[in-house]
Amino acid sequence: MANMADVCNILGRLRWFNLAILTITPAVGLYGIYTTRLRWETLLWATACYVLSMLGITAGYHRLWSHRSYNASRPLQYLLCLLGASAVQGSIYWWARGHRSHHRYTDTPLDPYNAKRGLFYTHVGWMLIKPSVKPGPSDISDLKNNEVVQWQHRWYFAIIPIVGYALPTIVAGLGWGDWWGGWYYASMWRITFAHHSTFCINSIAHYLGESPFDDKKTARDHFLSALLTMGEGYHNFHHQFPMDYRNAIRWYQFDPTKWFIATCGALGLASNLRVFPENEISKGELAMQLKKLKKVQEEIRWPIQVDDLPIVSWEKFKKESEERVLVIVSGFIHDVSEFLDEHPGGRGLLLGQRGKDATAAFFGGVYEHGNAAHNLLSMMRVGVLLGGVEHVKAIAPGERLRIVERLDQ
């Protein structure tokens, strides 16, 4: 009985409409592959429909209505709301509400597509099964007051048969007589690809790639994700700077949604294209670069800290120099005994400075040493001369530029 109860519970939590759309649509498309030849005109038309549907999602549902990253004129809003509806992914109101919860509660149980629940769940599972915990609340007052959003939400189920299925089929049928090709390829397969391309934003964009701006959350940047999602794959940037109308900030990065919005701005259809301050973006990048470098730094062996070195008098230094080859450079006593045969200038130069202050010679009197010599010499420190004067140049470059993590804040 317990097993039957579990089955009933699962069946009760299934989102049957979503399940039907996500299974019947590709099934019909597969049937079309075996029954209808794909014509090149239909392929081009299906591709155009796909791009337009995805722009409705990425430029409309996502960057305009979910994040308010720019302002759109009324004609552009209606165009994007119809293009987004053609992707058959729910109304703007439903889509944007869930996406705002995703950003506010990322990677927590209140995140409607929590990446920590696994790749399948974030890709499609959350669409098929009602969550045991409702998505966290978010402010959607602007969506409630937007006439275009509310109009589309009210008439959504009347709109999608027209723009999602009928229009792509009719154009192919009237245009070049390929009614079935329009149905199978420009409608069914185009919708299927649009579904899973969008779902990739929630799934692989949280698993595949790097975190160049912050690594607290699972969002990642990756070219493949961007290629599949019309530029949405630079997701680490997006989660750090969600109100920026761009997802990609480099000229060579693939973000056709950004190019579309910028073009609309140039044509006067969009305005107030929001961008995050470049200075703050650079801080985020630098912080992550320093974090990576600090890990490298921690794997490197460094010289003994100055405070841990013994303080040695001149007399003791001279006496110990008789037993081993000690030289002074900028107040530090160095044991170069094991380096005699490795010294590029030969043993004689080092032996000539034995028991002496070689500061002037080291800093250009004989030869002006580079970074490698400074770093290597610092590893030979064995003491600090009593009354000696430490010079800032005596600090090896590797130490001067050392990354220090502040733990007092």
From TrEMBL:
<keyword id="KW-0276">Fatty acid metabolism</keyword>
<dbReference type="GO" id="GO:0004768">
    <property type="term" value="F:stearoyl-CoA 9-desaturase activity"/>
</dbReference>
<dbReference type="GO" id="GO:0005506">
    <property type="term" value="F:iron ion binding"/>
</dbReference>
<feature type="transmembrane region" description="Helical">
    <location>
        <begin position="76"/>
        <end position="96"/>
    </location>
</feature>
<protein>
    <recommendedName>
        <fullName>Acyl-CoA desaturase</fullName>
        <ecNumber>1.14.19.1</ecNumber>
    </recommendedName>
</protein>
<keyword id="KW-0479">Metal-binding</keyword>
<feature type="transmembrane region" description="Helical">
    <location>
        <begin position="16"/>
        <end position="34"/>
    </location>
</feature>
<dbReference type="InterPro" id="IPR036400">
    <property type="entry name" value="Cyt_B5-like_heme/steroid_sf"/>
</dbReference>
<dbReference type="Pfam" id="PF00487">
    <property type="entry name" value="FA_desaturase"/>
</dbReference>
<dbReference type="InterPro" id="IPR018506">
    <property type="entry name" value="Cyt_B5_heme-BS"/>
</dbReference>
<dbReference type="InterPro" id="IPR009160">
    <property type="entry name" value="Acyl-CoA_deSatase_haem/ster-bd"/>
</dbReference>
<keyword id="KW-0444">Lipid biosynthesis</keyword>
<dbReference type="GO" id="GO:0020037">
    <property type="term" value="F:heme binding"/>
</dbReference>
<keyword id="KW-0249">Electron transport</keyword>
<comment type="similarity">
    <text>Belongs to the fatty acid desaturase type 1 family.</text>
</comment>
<keyword id="KW-0443">Lipid metabolism</keyword>
<keyword id="KW-0812">Transmembrane</keyword>
<dbReference type="GO" id="GO:0005789">
    <property type="term" value="C:endoplasmic reticulum membrane"/>
</dbReference>
<dbReference type="InterPro" id="IPR001199">
    <property type="entry name" value="Cyt_B5-like_heme/steroid-bd"/>
</dbReference>
<keyword id="KW-0472">Membrane</keyword>
<comment type="function">
    <text>Stearoyl-CoA desaturase that utilizes O(2) and electrons from reduced cytochrome b5 to introduce the first double bond into saturated fatty acyl-CoA substrates.</text>
</comment>
<keyword id="KW-0275">Fatty acid biosynthesis</keyword>
<dbReference type="InterPro" id="IPR005804">
    <property type="entry name" value="FA_desaturase_dom"/>
</dbReference>
<feature type="domain" description="Cytochrome b5 heme-binding">
    <location>
        <begin position="318"/>
        <end position="386"/>
    </location>
</feature>
<keyword id="KW-0349">Heme</keyword>
<dbReference type="InterPro" id="IPR001522">
    <property type="entry name" value="FADS-1_CS"/>
</dbReference>
<dbReference type="GO" id="GO:0006636">
    <property type="term" value="P:unsaturated fatty acid biosynthetic process"/>
</dbReference>
<dbReference type="Pfam" id="PF00173">
    <property type="entry name" value="Cyt-b5"/>
</dbReference>
<feature type="transmembrane region" description="Helical">
    <location>
        <begin position="43"/>
        <end position="64"/>
    </location>
</feature>
<keyword id="KW-0813">Transport</keyword>
<dbReference type="InterPro" id="IPR015876">
    <property type="entry name" value="Acyl-CoA_DS"/>
</dbReference>
<keyword id="KW-0560">Oxidoreductase</keyword>
<feature type="transmembrane region" description="Helical">
    <location>
        <begin position="155"/>
        <end position="176"/>
    </location>
</feature>
<keyword id="KW-1133">Transmembrane helix</keyword>
<keyword id="KW-0408">Iron</keyword>
